[in-house]
Fold:
Amino acid sequence: MAAQILIADDDEIARDVMAAVLSDRGHAVTVAEDGALALATLRRARFDVAVLDYHLPFVDGATAARRICADGGPAAHTRFIGVTADPGGLELRDAEGIVFDAIVQKPLNLPAFVDAVEGCLSELRRAAAEREVLEAWRSHGFERRPRARFAAEPSHDNRLRLGRAFDLSRPGNPDVVLLTEDLRLGEIAELRTTGNLFALPMVDVAGRWGRLADASFDVEDRAAWDEVASVAQGFAARRAQLATRFLGAASLSDQLLAYIFVSGRDLVPLDLDADEWTPTYPGFFPVRRVRDVAEKLVHHGMLLRESLDEDQIFAPPRFTLTASALSSLTGAMPAVAPPRRARR
Structure:
C-alpha cells in the first residue's frame, strides 16, 4: 500500500528530486512550496510522513511541525523529517519541542534521505501493529497485552512472532506461560510444580499439547485470543481468592488443589484408552503421581471421586473439589450442610 507523503520545500529542484525519488518507490507524494501551505495541507488530509524544510517561507518547518503536533487531528500519527543545510541549528531548535523523527542534511544524500523516510514508515507500521494488538486484547476484556514467559528458551521466530501479541518484558510476573513444540512432558511437569507456576495458565502456542494445556493460541485465530483472555482472567480472579498457604504451596497435594480451583476445571482423565494405572490428567502435573495424590486427597475429604464408566472397575475417575476443600483454599468458613433425611 502506497504511503502518503508531504514534501514542503521552497527549493523547487530539491522538492522535485525528493518527490521523484519517493514516487519511483511507489509512494503517493504531495508537494508544498511554503510553510503556510504545508500547514493547511496537513490539517486537511492525513499523511504518513511530512518532509519539511527548516527555512520555509511564512512558517518555518519546525514551527509548522510543532503546530501540527499540538493540533492532533488527522496528523496525530504523522512522522516528521526535517531537511536543512544547518542540521546543528535545527537540532538545537527542535530540542525545545522534539517534533522531528529524523533530520536530513542538504545538499541531499539521496540514499540517506530514502533511509530516513523508510525508517519512519517502518516505525509507523510497527506502531500501527501494536495499536491493533492492544485493541484486539481490549475487545476481549484486557486493558493491556497479557504478560507472558516461555516455558523454555524460545526460537528467534517464536520470540518475534509472539512478542507482538504478548508482553515478554516481565517474565517474572506473567499472566500466562507459553508452551512451544520443543519441550518434553516431564520438563513441563517439573516447571508446573516449581516457582508458583502451578497457579498460572499454560498456553499451547505450538498446536501440540491439546487439552493438557489450559488454552491454545494462534496469532491468526481471533477465537484463540478470546480463549486466552478468558482463561487468563479466570485464573487471575480465582487466584486472588486463594488463601496465603496455597499461593506459595510447596506440596504436590496443595498445588493440585490450588490448580483445580484456579483453573475452574475438574480433574478429568483425558485419554480413557491410556494405561489405566497412569491416566493422563490436565494441567501437566507429574503423570505417575497425580492419581495417587488425588486418591489421598479423597481420603482426607478434599476431593470427590466419581467413576466415569461404572462398567469398568478400573476406569480412571474424575476428581472434583469438596466444600471442605473450597473453604480451605479460600480461607472461608465452611457452609453448614443441611441435615440428611433418613431413608425409608
In short: Residues 242-336 form a domain with the Arc Repressor Mutant, subunit A fold (CATH 1.10.10). The chain has a mean pLDDT of 85.
